[in-house]
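Appendix B, record 7
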Amino acid sequence: MSINWYPGHMAKTRRLMLGDLKNIDMICEILDARIPESSRNPDLTDIARDKRRMLVLNREDQADPTVTAGWVEHYRRQGYTVMTANSQKGGFLNEFTAAVGRCCADLLERNAAKGVNRTVKIMIVGIPNVGKSSFINRLLGKKSAIAEDRPGVTRARQWFNLAGKYDFMDTPGMLWPKIDDDSVGYKLAFTGTIRDEILDREDMACMLLRQLAERYDENVVKRYGITDVNAEMPYETLEEIAKKRGFLQGRGQLDTERMAKVFIDEFRAGKLGRITLELPPQE
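Structure tokens (predicted):
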């Protein structure tokens, strides 16, 4: 599988981000806690250059808490300022301001020494549908940034101010031009980063079942009332789930395409439990 989904607005976003960096104090990258490493844009390292970097593991409520803690520790050892968040619920304003204080400690100390009182300018970045706009809305306490549960909604830069202390730039979701790694491509598809229309849903569902069989087979068994998850022949498991749900077509044929869509939607909604598809590297 080679995914080449790079709409024109993403290329434009990259150019604008490079031009805006001179006015930015720090970059806050929003990640999907279910796939922390796959949801990181490798191009951002070149774009960010020597800017202060902060990582937010979003959707923590849908991710395995033990694994999330491992990722937080891993990234902190790499020198990043890290926090977790649930953009659907909010309640992380104090944690965010404290994290920004740690990330920009040198800047704040320098401004205080000079008697300078100015806002910290933060660029919010991330791949499509990772929850950047929802994250900003929760911080602001109102719906200001455009946010929907599908990729490619934010198409232009938006500036917002928080308490007169922080200026946020919400940028459109940006992927890298070509995704050659099958594993990364499928994980992005599972979490809704890539439009469903460009991949086969039954294939996606089978790949997700195969991956869940490694560590979260009990979640699938409990959710759908089946005996087990067949990692070697996941399509048989998809058929069994469709039969349990009563998804039938004409002449008694199982509607596996409909079941595949429901299965993927329920994973994305967290109905299969708290699942993380990537483990942090062993240090």
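Remarks on this record: The chain has eleven helices and six strands. Confidence is low (pLDDT under 50) at residues 146-155.
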